[in-house]
Amino acid sequence: MNDFGPELRRWRDLRRLSQLELAMDCGVSPRHLSFLETGRANPSRDMIERLGGALDVPLEGRNAMLQAAGFAARHPVSDLSADHMARVREATLRIVDRHAPYPGMAFDADWRLVRINAGAAPMLAPLGVGEGDSLLAPLLRPGLAAAFIENWDAVGAHLLHRLRAEVRSGGPRPALTKAMAALEADPVVQRGASQVTDVDPVMPTIYRAGDMRLAFFSTLLTFLGAQDVAVQSLRIELLFPADAETEATYGWARGTDQ
User: Residue 178 — φ and ψ, nearest 5°?
Assistant: First the structure.
């Protein structure tokens, strides 16, 4: 007996599908699916990929399913510095670096920063994070984020919602689980989660350091058609001024780039 059955059941539960629904999506009988979950039948590699596709399991999760069934992982996990990753690396650097002077960053599935630009570095420094660090690390130090983010109640509540969505989509990860626990224990975040207020079309994050107040909203970019675990998990976040004051603060630098 292998560990594939519990792994399949975990993903099916995450997607809130019955055995019948998943069986219909995969074109197999509910009886066979039940046998796969209980270990009375062993899946083929192709069946695992079919189940992974029907469950929308990310590549990293599909590797885990394959290994649980006794197969070798099929989907590569490459370092961004590898030669064959040059196009992805160059695209990431171009997007992040050319977004300056506005803050831009790229990070992996554990929110570990793989690239930050000149606009993001000074903004993240008070939080004690830079390239190679996790953006989630400040959450493990109570009160740190609230000291630099003016609307931490709303931002923290939004971040908790975002992390929960990532866990539902990609499965639990220790870094995300710890961050979620810290946010759930933060009374300021809990207060923000319980409040319903009129907001702008996009919720800003308002950073404050001394007399400096900067408001940003962000966009999130991913690579479509990724066939490598590292590429699929790579995300690029670009921040844009959310008010006239922030735009004016960065306007002089923006003008020198044009």
Answer: -65, -40
pTM of the model: 0.89
Average pLDDT of span 109-135 = 95
Give the lowest-confidence range in 52-61, 125-134, 143-152, 190-199.
190-199
Q: What are the strands, taking DSSP E only, across the chain?
A: 104-107, 113-116, 205-209, 212-222, 235-241
Provide the token pair at 182: 């810290």
CATH of the domain at 30: 1.10.260.40
Domain that holds residue 159: 83-257
Q: Which residue has the higher pLDDT, 200 or 215?
A: 215
Q: What DSSP line would sit under 57-79, residue for residue? A: --HHHHHHHHHHTTPPP-S----
Cα separation, 31 vs 35, in Å, equals 6
User: Is the pLDDT assigned to residue 1 strictly greater than 80?
Assistant: no
211 with 97, same domain: the answer is: yes
- In the three-class reduction of DSSP (H, G, I as helix; E, B as strand; rest coil), residue 116 is classed as strand
Pairing label, strands 104-107, 205-209: unpaired
DSSP, collapsed to helix, strand or coil, labels residue 212 as: strand
